[in-house]
Amino acid sequence: MPLFLLTTATMIAFAANSVLNRLALAGGGIDAASFGAIRLVAGAVMLAGLCLVLRGRINLRGPGRIAGVLSLLVYIYGFSGAYTALDAGLGALILFGVVQITMFVGGLWAREAMPPRRWIGAIMAFGGLAWLLWPGVGPAISPLHALLMALAGVGWGIYSLAGRLNRDALQATAANFILAAPAGVLITLVWPAGPGGAEIGHDGILLAIASGALTSGVGYAMWYSIVPRIGASVAAVAQLTVPVIAMAGGMIFLAEALDLQFVMATVLVLGGVAISVLPFGRG
């Protein structure tokens, strides 16, 4: 599959994770911790099966494995916890705005080339995110849930950077999920339950399985195959298209309102993506 189409399919999968997670939690069919655990287990089972069929074995070792497993756990549970209150598009914008910052820092740390237009695009995109989250300016946002999504963004940024160290994207993604799943189950057991205790309904389980096996397991394997080919900074800004896709999904499947402030912030973010990624000549 051409790189552009593979990247597009991966971004759609990422946006679908936001919609599926929010759909499950907003409907009250499952609690955040249980969703995260089922998502991890479903992803581990799917990826283990793919490795056995396509590779004939499962390899749990590899460079960046500890960083990959720990950052995956931070992302999964920060993501699920945040979506108990945030809309799909808003959560995705916070997530990938923080991802961009994390991956740009990683790119600078690795001394990756940063042309001036990429700096301009990054500042523009970050400005859109800051405008949305500035107290008293954007829509009312729970600080706790925004913080959880920001932590998820740091986790995903580190997870993406760790993926650059692996030659076999499928094996690396499978190993991360397989090793993270038992830890995720333990986290779920000690996760503070709400007033009604843990909730695990039929619809919530199905949505968590779909998120784990398809849009996470398969989607992340595709992502690990992409990141080494496009560089940390380009990968960071490419992911900022996800909030727009997630916003559309939230409007269609969750009847979420389209706020003018969010639209204007999104325009800034996408403008930054265009400036950073599209080849407008040298630099």
Short recap of the structure:
With 283 residues, the protein is mainly α. It has helices at residues 3-26, 32-54, 65-82, 88-109, 116-133, 143-163, 169-190, 202-230, 232-238, 242-254, 260-277.
Question: How would you sum up this structure, described in words?
Answer:
The chain is mainly α and 283 residues long. The chain is built from eleven helices and no strands. The protein has helices spanning 3-26, 32-54, 65-82, 88-109, 116-133, 143-163, 169-190, 202-230, 232-238, 242-254, 260-277.
The structure class reads mainly alpha
Low-confidence stretches: none
- End-to-end distance, in Å? 28 Å
Please report which band the strand proportion falls in: under 5%, 5-15%, 15-25%, 25-35%, 35-45% or over 45%.
under 5%
How many DSSP-defined strands? 0
InterPro entries: AA-Vitamin_Transporters (IPR050638), EamA_dom (IPR000620), EmrE-like (IPR037185)
Organism: Roseovarius lutimaris
Protein name: EamA-like transporter family protein
Pfam family, one: EamA
Write the layout of secondary structure elements.
Blueprint: H1 3-26, H2 32-54, H3 65-82, H4 88-109, H5 116-133, H6 143-163, H7 169-190, H8 202-230, H9 232-238, H10 242-254, H11 260-277
Helix pairs in contact: 1-4, 1-8, 1-10, 2-3, 2-7, 2-8, 3-6, 3-7, 4-5, 4-6, 4-9, 4-10, 5-11, 7-8, 8-9
Give a quick set of tags describing it:
283 residues; mainly alpha; AA-Vitamin_Transporters; EmrE-like; EamA-like transporter family protein; transmembrane
